[in-house]
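All the exercises in this workshop are built on plain-text protein records. Sequence and backbone structure share a record, each on its own labelled line. The question running through the whole workshop is how a given chain folds. The record below serves as our worked example for the rest of this section.
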Amino acid sequence: MFSLSVLLLFITSSILLILAPGPDIIFAITQGITNGRKAGFFTAMGLSLGNSVHTLAAAFGLSIIFKTSEIAFILFKTFGACYLFFLAYKAIKHRNDPLVVSEADSEVNHRGLILRGFLMNVLNPKVALFFLAFLPQFVNPEYGNVSLQMILLGLIFMVLVAIIFGSLGYFAGSFGDWILKKPGFSKLMNMTSATIFCALGVKLITSRR
């Protein structure tokens, strides 16, 4: 269904974007540092599971767009590209911003952390827009069912989020603390993210139905 080159490009882009500084990764690290390894891990699992909702919404929403008029597709890709360019602008603008850990709750409830991470992800409209703009870059209608392709890509992204966020949350006392104290890491990841967003935006705006 996917060529090896497309799959590798998707995985590489996903890893770089997942590592980009943002509220989700900071939340997972915060829980790991303040409430222990398990808290960081379970928070990461909740954040990962939340992506399933956005994946399904993007998959079935995009499949409808592909089946409707040319105008709808043009509007979709124009909006998606503009949003990706906006994300690139934000990444560049805040490239030097320090990463700040907020105060976490004193009581640890692992099930509660999973739910909190899940809701934090699901109720974030920016994540929904990101999925709708990001996943289509790697979908080819000629390879089969568009919705199925999107769901498979979403599952891969979820696994990557679980591994990366889970590791950072679990080992927050070392890796997480190191990331928070390295301003150069934040700048590097933001600039890398900006480059990827711009490239994906150009690819989307020049795509054909």
In short: The longest helix spans residues 37-67. DSSP finds nine helices and no strands in the chain. The chain has one domain: 23-96+108-205. Residues 23-96+108-205 form one domain.
